[in-house]
Amino acid sequence: MGEGIKLPVLNGLGRTNRIDNWLKQPLSMGIALTVTLIYTAARLFLYPDTIHYELNGATVMSPIFSPNVLEWSLFGLNEWDHPGWVNAAILVLWIPFGFRGTCYYMRRVYYRTFFASPVACWVDEPEINKKLGYKGEKRLFIFNNLHRYFLYAAMVILAIKWWDVTHTLHFTEGAAQGWGVCIGTLVMGFEAFLLTMYVTSCHALRHLAGGVLDRWTSPISRLRGKLFGRISALNRSHGFWFWTSLMFVFLGDLWVLAVDAGVLSDMVLFAF
User: Fold this and answer.
1) Which residues, 6+ apart, have CB-to-CB distance to 137 below 8 Å?
2) Rounded distance between C-alpha atoms, residue 86 and residue 84, angstroms
3) How far apart are CA 135 and CA 142, in angstroms?
4) Which residues pair with 34 in a beta bridge?
5) Could you say which of 120, 158, 197, 222 has the lowest number of CB atoms within 10 Å?
6) Which pTM does this prediction carry?
């Protein structure tokens, strides 16, 4: 028996025989995630006042603060005597954060960028990682096993986001009264579309559709097999939908801030 194949890795964090720019991807991803975390914290605790704007009676909501559960009358939630620092995002954001944080693609990103485990293929990792060894989804990362449950909650949030899009379609004031579309409709609709693609390309949803089946022979299993195939096709671009949907959450929020501050102007594109 041979000793196996020795990978061309030099001992020491970040040491490797690779000659390409291998650090570019983990570095850019790490910076992007850090910026999103800082921006989210600032919006939630330092600048939480502007969460939507009105246009001819229609409401355009920031993607960060959607759904605005504090405006719901369900279970008397809007009458809840909550602290002043509590806003809709603080109450709801744990769901999309939990869904993204336990995502299979996201695990690869933060394992490489924040834990250097490893930083890239054929690139050595810290000595402490070698001493600890790979423990799977245990200890701190045992929470990653909750991903399928965060998926169910994220699907509810996704449905409510599409419902929020409808609130931008009805104009009750001004010259353009009736049903129509404004720029804010396109912003919120595109953000909801990207999030839909991210959720429907999820690995856990793929398993839910056609997993635990040895063969697809019965009518129901054949239907699940076709659904499994469609989600598998979307799953190949799961990383793309992860980043585009995440990016547009903040672009949509910046749009709401800019319109509310008068830097940009929304308009009714057409109404009938």
Assistant:
1) 144, 145
2) 6
3) 10
4) none
5) 222
6) 0.86
